Amino acid sequence: CIECGQRCSDHSSLVMHQSLHTKERPCICVECGDSFRWSSALNVHLRIHRVKRP
């Protein structure tokens, strides 16, 4: 990484790491507008909208 010197094993890992420096949050919840860096974090978040409330 040119920002911090972190070494990554492959290009995709480097791209994921570099997104930490850009503060980019491309994964947006359509229910509430919250945004996340990773689609996996968005998927975990989406569970709160799927829970049936009494």
Question: How would you summarize what this structure contains?
Answer:
Keywords: Metal-binding, Nucleus, Repeat, Zinc, Zinc-finger. The protein is mainly α and 54 residues long.
Which terms summarize this structure?
54 residues; mainly alpha; Double Stranded RNA Binding Domain; two-stranded antiparallel sheet; 2 helices; 44% helix
Topology of this structure?
Blueprint: H1 11-22, E1 27-28, E2 35-36, H2 39-50
CATH architecture of the domain at 24-54: 2-Layer Sandwich
Strand order of the largest sheet: 1-2
In terms of DSSP E residues, the strand content is 5-15%
The helix-and-strand class reads mainly alpha
CATH topology of the domain at 24-54: Double Stranded RNA Binding Domain
The main pleated sheet reads as: 2 strands, antiparallel
Rg: 15 Å
CATH class of the domain at 24-54: Alpha Beta
The helix/strand series, from N terminus to C terminus, equals HEEH
- State the helical fraction: 40-55%
Distance between the termini: 48 Å
Average pLDDT reading: 90
Number of strands: 2
